[in-house]
Write a structure and sequence with these properties.
single chain, Immunoglobulin-like, five-stranded antiparallel beta sheet, four-stranded antiparallel beta sheet
Length: 197
């Protein structure tokens, strides 16, 4: 009996040493995400996920009011996640939704400031919005939009220091699409992107 107790003790000691060594090796393999890497990853994910989120919302209920409401919820979620990492998130969405021959164009402001003005021009027809507050949205309807069109927009807002004006023109087909401007600020590091989906 004494001989077996010694063997069991040795086997137990070897198992314990192997477990401790395995735990030590596995902790060295874990890589920590630095705050800048997290901001980079989050920024890339938002760029990639915007189209998916918009399509998911449209599939759920394809009305401009639902899209406005759900996109503000989505941007609030992003803002909450960013604030946990001391990242300032701002942006705006311009979403075009075809309704029969018409096109509803929704502007959603998630800049932390007022959008001073926004002009949307579709095939020469211009509609404007003045003073769109933070976390607010507006939908404009363009009647009898052709299948192939020129979409032009200009958005002006203040970043707290100066007035910023962004403008772009693209040739589009009448379908669900969006122009998305997102901006992250983490310390001195700023990332900004303008995407068309």
């Amino acid at each position: 009996m004494v001989k077996r107790k010694g063997q069991m003790f040795l086997v137990g000691a070897l198992i314990l040493c192997a477990a401790i060594a395995g735990a030590a090796i596995s902790t060295k393999a874990v890589s920590m995400t630095t705050p800048n890497n997290f901001a980079d990853d989050m920024f890339s994910n938002i760029e990639n996920e915007n189209r998916y989120v918009l399509n998911l919302i449209a599939k759920e209920n394809v009305t401009s009011k639902n899209i406005e409401h759900r996109m503000i919820e989505y941007m609030s979620f992003i803002d909450h996640m960013a604030l946990e990492r001391n990242i300032k998130y701002t942006g705006y969405f311009i979403i075009a939704l075809p309704i029969n021959d018409d096109l509803n164009v929704t502007i959603i402001n998630y800049n932390k400031a007022l959008i001073d003005s926004a002009d949307i021009i579709i095939d020469g027809t211009k509609k404007s919005v003045v003073f769109l507050p933070h976390k607010d949205s507006v939908t404009m309807t363009f009647d009898d939009v052709p299948d192939y069109m020129t979409f032009n927009y200009t958005v002006s807002y203040s970043d707290g220091i100066s007035l910023i004006t962004q403008t772009d023109e693209i040739n589009m087909t009448r379908r669900l699409f969006s122009a998305v401007n997102i901006r992250f600020k983490s310390g001195d590091n700023i990332r900004q992107s303008l995407l068309f989906n």
